[in-house]
Design a protein that fits this description.
By secondary structure, the protein is α/β, with parallel strands linked by helices. It has two helices and five strands.
C-alpha cells in the first residue's frame, strides 16, 4: 500500500484525500499549531472562485480533507524535522512511524500519534 505524508502543506489542488487514490487512511498530514504557511494555503489554494468562496478551500491538515492528522510539535513551518537532545521530536517521530508502516502495529504504542482535535460543540 502506498502512503502520502505531508508536513505543513499549504494545499494539494485536490478536494479530498480520496482524490489521491491511495486508499482510506493512507494520507497523513502534520500541521504545527503555529505554522502560518499551512494556514495561508487555505486562502491561496482552491477553485477558480477561491477568493469569494473560502469555505470550499481545504488543506491536508483540515478535518474536511479526510486525511489522518498526526500530532506535530510547535515551532512553525520549519519544525517538522526537529530533534531535541539527538532524539526526534513528535513530528519527526510520527513521520518515521508512517514511513516504516507502523500504523498497522499490533502495539498501539508503536503507531503514529493521531491528533485529537477539540470538539467544536464545546467551544
Amino acid at each position: 500500500m502506498d502512503d502520502i505524508l505531508v508536513q505543513g502543506s499549504p494545499g494539494m489542488h485536490v478536494d479530498s484525500a480520496d482524490d489521491l487514490q491511495v486508499g482510506k487512511g493512507h494520507v497523513w498530514a502534520l500541521e504545527a499549531p503555529d505554522d502560518n504557511i499551512a494556514e495561508f494555503g487555505s486562502y491561496a489554494h482552491g477553485g477558480v472562485d477561491s477568493y469569494t468562496r473560502p469555505q470550499d478551500r481545504v488543506i491536508p491538515g483540515d478535518e474536511r480533507f479526510g486525511g489522518v492528522r498526526l500530532e506535530a510539535n510547535s515551532g512553525g513551518h520549519n519544525s517538522y524535522w526537529d530533534e531535541t537532545n539527538g532524539r526526534p521530536d513528535r513530528s519527526l517521530d510520527n513521520q518515521r512511524r508512517v514511513v516504516m508502516g507502523m500504523y498497522d502495529s499490533p502495539n498501539p504504542a508503536d503507531r503514529p500519534v493521531v491528533e485529537t482535535l477539540p470538539d467544536p460543540k464545546l467551544a
